């Protein structure tokens, strides 16, 4: 007779095995999981002809990368294809914790889609949650690249941001040191935040980097997190050569051994193999009880476990990508709620009014203050377009952008709900004699830097590439600490990631801030916003209005005025007199220099906002020599251009920060905040 097996041990072992496997699936992507696409960048570089040598080499390279996503290569592989000018360099990197199967699937998916997202581009890089894949016509192996980059964060803020930010900074710093000194260039870290909540961190570099280059890349990524994501309970900063991420839930696979759950306690049956029912004298077999109860226990435990995993994964996905996963329902408010928050849109709550509607201050029952833009019924935008545009603006999340909290769409009512910004717009402080003195030089420099970072986010760091098209001092709001927040996205335009410019027959914007190629030919790009930023920067330094600047004996516009002083070596005479001598001469000269570079007549001569931010934050960057800026700011030169386009939906406003006779803006869409608040 063979060995006897206990029914209890077989069932108990089965439960333990099933629960153990289910638990592992919760902690890590199980076999068959799909890679999660994040972002693709197609730099504005040269292209290759279809069916040519470069394309053939690229196809060979991508095939080689896909076939080498094997356990032997440990999630990283680089190679080349072709020779001479048609050589293609490529690599893939899988996240250090993903399974071999998921790594292979991710690389395969990336190789199949990258050429579709970047058709005929010689340079491309695509990121998934589980891997990255890149190629170029120039060798980048073992070279630390920090651009292009992007960031993502959880819009839920922490209750104690100061303490949380300190913990995140400390732990990511420790992790960077660990990763840089490791052979795999990958590590994770877990730390206690509260008695019931932990912090989970991950950092990784491409293994071909040296320790010092890896450390430099990670430190740069970590330093960006306070800029984009301060106080967020989860965020990531991603660069071609490295990435860092932290969350308050375990988003990576726990590779340490997980102890199997203890066997379920089963009481030992009596030696008689019978139990007596109370007071009945009936006998029930122990085997019968086990046969009935245990399957029920198994079913309940398995359903609970898989149910928890399913809900957990849904929650993780939503948290990871933040606002961009929110549906319409999470952003839409009832009209009654908004009316109650504004005391039924009472005049006492009105804080601004423009051609497309009025702005009201409001407060939700939880105490949150809001700014409510109630669009007029002749705003000219349909319900679908309004909803889509509201969803677009709500996706823009940055400390230097005014945040759209939601919208209301009921009947003919179209309402936008923004965060309330305590102070008014920058022009109120810059050009108001009573408020002027509050803007000392450190505050002005902070406003310049913050506005530059907000614009850089729109151009490069958000998942959408946005051209603002109407940046000016009245569209920069100031919070309680006089930190800048760019507002009014009514004229904004979305670009494709690899799109560099666009054309329009309808010129909209503000006199004096428009770049010449936009005002004269309808061509706009990120460099159009750079031009507007340069004008705004020079206004902040000089304290003079660009829109109404006129000095008949010296210059006809602000740019000419600045250029003449710069040429004559008297640039410091441009500084706002109210500052006296209380300013940094080096910073002022640098700002004037940057302002002139941003307003160059030739688009190619203007820097990108990434370069501007670098110049503002570094004293070691060599600035190019500026040439004469574009000079065309008088309203006479615009009159034919502005009125030459289509006419529907136009509105001309009188800006409180400009002269009353100077028309300032032509709006073509409804999402706009025309008055400071």
Automatic annotation (TrEMBL):
MF GO annotations: ATP binding; protein serine/threonine kinase activity
Occurrences of domain Gnk2-homologous (ranges): 36-140, 146-251
Comp. bias regions, Polar residues: 654-677
Membrane disposition: Single-pass membrane protein
Keywords assigned: ATP-binding, Glycoprotein, Kinase, Membrane, Nucleotide-binding, Repeat, Serine/threonine-protein kinase, Signal, Transferase, Transmembrane, Transmembrane helix
Single Gene Ontology BP annotation: response to oxidative stress
UniProt main location, coarse: membrane
Region described as Disordered: 263-283, 644-677
Residues annotated as binding ATP: 373
Signal peptide annotation: 1-32
Biased composition, class Low complexity, residue ranges: 269-283
Cellular localization per UniProt: Membrane
Chain segments annotated as transmembrane: 289-311
A Pfam family this chain is assigned to: Stress-antifung
Domain Protein kinase, first and last residues per copy: 345-623
Gene3D superfamilies in the record: Gnk2 domain, C-X8-C-X2-C motif, Phosphorylase Kinase, domain 1, Transferase(Phosphotransferase) domain 1
Top-level taxonomic group: Eukaryota
Record bears the keyword Plastid: no
GO cellular component: membrane
PANTHER family in the cross-refs: CYSTEINE-RICH RECEPTOR-LIKE PROTEIN KINASE 5, RECEPTOR-LIKE SERINE/THREONINE-PROTEIN KINASE SD1-8
Protein name: Cysteine-rich receptor-like protein kinase 10
Species lineage: Eukaryota, Viridiplantae, Streptophyta, Embryophyta, Tracheophyta
